[in-house]
Amino acid sequence: MLKHIALALIFLACGGAGAYYSRAMFLRVKELEAALQMLGSLRAQLQFSRPPLERMLSDICAGQPPVFLPHALRQMRAGTAFPAAWHDALLRHSPALRQEDRARLLPLGELLGASDAAGQREALLLQESLLQAQLEQARARRDSRGKAVFTLGILAGLTVMILFI
């Protein structure tokens, strides 16, 4: 009886690990899509209306923002300078993003609100193109490996169960 419970727990642990890593791939794609949408929205606002940075971020947060953006906005409203708030929120509140994704977004904290509108639009356009390439790679990885990782977790659990029976 105890052996069967242990085998079931091993199976669940392996299946859970596969589900965890598969979900991480799906969440990364979702977060990159939200970040690209945010960059496009910022660029459009800079081109047409040029509102203050805090209002631009508030407008984006009203929709489907990247996970880290509300944290950055909250820190800004608490008195933290935007570059520090952006940096902290991006590093601490974006678990789905990989290090290279964060490396693409971190420089925006220094650029937004610090230069003229044309310079900011150019920087946003460049970051959009670089992030778009990363999004395409993340989608390809998700499509090719996402379900496989989950299935391998289940199969590993079944294999362990069979070996111990």
- Number of helices in the DSSP assignment: 7
Q: Mind telling me the C-alpha Rg?
A: 21 Å
Protein structure class:
mainly alpha
Mean pLDDT: 87
| Helix and strand element order | HHHHHHH
Amino- and carboxy-terminal Cα gap: 12 Å
Query: How many domains make up the 3D coordinates?
Result: 1
Q: Percent helix among the residues?
A: over 70%
Number of strands: 0
Q: In what range is the share of β-strand residues?
A: under 5%
Shape: elongated
The main pleated sheet reads as: none
Task: State the low-pLDDT regions, or none.
Answer: none
List keywords for this structure.
single chain; 165 residues; mainly alpha; 82% helix; elongated
Give an account of the 3D structure.
- There is one protein chain.
- The model has no long low-confidence stretch (mean pLDDT 87).
- It contains 7 helices and no strands.
- It has one domain (2-164).
- It has 165 residues and is mainly alpha-helical.
